[in-house]
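Re-run requested by the PI after the first attempt was lost when the workstation crashed. Everything re-entered from the original request form. Ligand of interest: adenosine-5'-diphosphate.
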Amino acid sequence: MVDIADLAARESLVVAIDGPSGSGKSSVSKETARQLHAQYLDTGAMYRAATWWCLDQAINLEDKDLVVATVLDGQLEFSTSPDQEFVRVNGIDVTEDIRTERVSQAVSAVASIQQVRDHLIALQRSIIEAAPRIVAEGRDITTVVAPDANARILLTASEEARLARRGLQLSATATPMAEGAQASSYSKETLKQIVTERDKKDSATTSFTEAADGVDTVDSTELDFAQTVDAVLASVARQVTAKNR
Ligand SMILES: Nc1ncnc2c1ncn2[C@@H]1O[C@H](COP(=O)(O)OP(=O)(O)O)[C@@H](O)[C@H]1O
Ligand SMILES: Nc1ccn([C@H]2C[C@H](O)[C@@H](COP(=O)(O)OP(=O)(O)O)O2)c(=O)n1
């Protein structure tokens, strides 16, 4: 059985992680990447940045051709270091702005356009190919972007756990939507709108609620953050060991 040190020393390692909103994809993938001395690719941030640019250009999001042309015109730059997060569109730093509720509400529509996806998926694949080791997370990494990854994981958690985590996260970061908000100020209904409704919209485009063949499910409902990272690392080690046989 390979261990973490073996994985971190590999010349090539691709870990693909998908899951619904609030399952812990970003935070768990980032920590997994740190432990594997790997790069980290947040594909959701790319869809969010493309959406931010369309909103900034004040275009009609229902005009799909215009959305595609606008997205192609937005030069993306982003960090793939798990320790330094930044996203820029045409030189504008949008690291914080892409997390606003305005972007969250519009992103599913932009991400549902196939030409937008083709463009961003090509970019994602080129980053994954260029990296020695990388953990890439999103909604279609295990199935479309990197189906040949060394390890493929669907990270899940019960709806209740995901809503509670998002509530705590939003209150801690106090987004512009809810300046200074505390966890208690988010009703379950509001959190459902934020988390469950977006998942419903995204499900029409990508498949992230059921594990595809060969994809290992890690259910974090009963696990804390550190236990979830350990479960993901154990799954990567198992999958890489099995493929080496
Ligand atoms: N296993 C866990 N237990 C408790 N909280 C967690 C766990 N995994 C992630 N979190 C927290 O839940 C919140 C949502 O996680 P995030 O990584 O943003 O999810 P996603 O990228 O899937 O939307 C974050 O505040 C994160 O620290
Ligand atoms: N590989 C991906 C990643 C994200 N998306 C879309 C769908 C999501 O609603 C948005 C934002 O993704 P993000 O991972 O930031 O979402 P969370 O707020 O972390 O749940 O992008 C996608 O269509 N395909």
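Saved to the shared folder this time. The beta strands are 13-18, 39-42, 76-78, 87-89, 92-93, 133-138, 151-156, 216-219.
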